[in-house]
Amino acid sequence: MIDSTDEEIEDGGEFDGLFEESLRALSSGTLVDGVVVAAGASGVVVDIGYKSEGVIPPDEFADSELAALKPGDVISVFITRINQGEGVVYLSKRRADALRVWDRLEAAAESGLPVEGVIDGIIKGGMSVRMEGETVFLPSSHIGLRPVRNPEEMIGTVSFFKVLKVNKRRRNAIVSRKLYLEDELKEKRRQTLERLTKGAVIDGTVKSLTDYGVFVDLGGIDGLLHVSDISWGRISNPAERFSPGNSLQVVVLDFDAEAGKVTLGHKQLKPDPWSLANERYSIGDIVSGKVMGLTEYGAFVEIEEGVEGLVHVSELRWGSRPKSAAELLSRGQVINAVILKVDTQERRISLSIKRLSPNPWEAVAQRFRPGQLVSGEVRNLTDFGAFVRIEDGIDGLVHVSDMSWTKHVRHPSEIVRKGDVVDAVVLAIDAARERMSLGIKQLGPDPWLEGITQRFRVGDIVAGSVIKVVEFGIFVELDGGMEGLVYASEISGDDAMEIRGKARPGDGIKVKIIKVDTHERKIGLSLHGVPQ
Fold it and tell me: Is the CATH number 1.20.1250.20 carried by domain 6-96?
């Protein structure tokens, strides 16, 4: 053991005096900076000046933080207690960190600068926010720009906040996310206004969808992208292309700063496809496309985005024209067609499906001649006649006037029915207009040209049957299917009402022939002086 000299004892006494004096210069509750002297499992020794050292318990450091400390590091510490008798200074790193946080919150409240934090829970009247280990209060009315319906979804959100009020002594503070977002929105709006010029291409985010367009957030300012400006092609609803939250580029078509209205375009990012249509499409080209719309007069076919052609019902198939395009095509169907006409000025392309196959009418003039006997199925009835399918793609029309020599046919259903197989005579062929006229009455001779005046002589009283009673008389069927008309004036005054009131189609009746007009093909009849 080495004995101490008197000088050493005197020096030691002087050191002890200085240490006691330095302790008196310190006070508990003080925040100071210190220098790490040593760090280990038993704690961290820190030189806080004034010839004083203190120890921080190891549990105030994370394992990684404790392992990273090395002598000479400067850290902030809080003096929790001073034991003058033992000459020991008790320090806290955790409380120092907390005080630093409250200092920063206090400074942020004075400066208006935002601070970062994490929303970590729901409490009465709002939510709690963690800021560097300290908890502050976020009122419900200050969570967002609009009321938040599901605050639990906000838990874990990292955001910036404005500090409204701080009580450092009680360690509580009130913050606002809403005010920070409002300032952020104002700044975005300012920056956006600087970029908003007609023709500018800017980025945006889909905010909401309507039937007529898309509202796009451009950064503090909303613009309207009308459905007609989304694509050069056909779009019935914006939801076909976009969903809320989608990012997109748009072109500023118009901007009214005073009204705050911005009109946007999306299709304008690409050239108008019709500007190149003359170069891309020619008459006779075969193209493929999707059926986008069906009407009674035809089908609209998209052959590229923004370019549609029309297949008219007359160009769907050879032969009889369908009542509408929906009889043969369906929406979304992909078809081939041949181009008949390109009109870029009117933005129209005429297409044909039937011209992809040979035209059966081209050989009709060689295969059929007027007077030729043909047979076919009645495919359709109209007010003016019956269409008869002679062969695939070739229909002929039997007009009502060509159905009977002797009857006044008012509708083809009086002679034929749909589905009947009938014989007919070819009357005329117009291959260019795809028309063939047929006749049924021409299968037999014309009775008006073969002794009609000998069969029906003026003054004869003959038997017949009632066909129809009308205001101006009674139609009567005579021998051989010939028709005659009893004029109203040829019915006796006393008997007129009774006869006309009782007469029914099919009733037998006797009449006098008073007129035979072969030119007009009419037989006039009378009931005067004819006993019934």
Answer: no
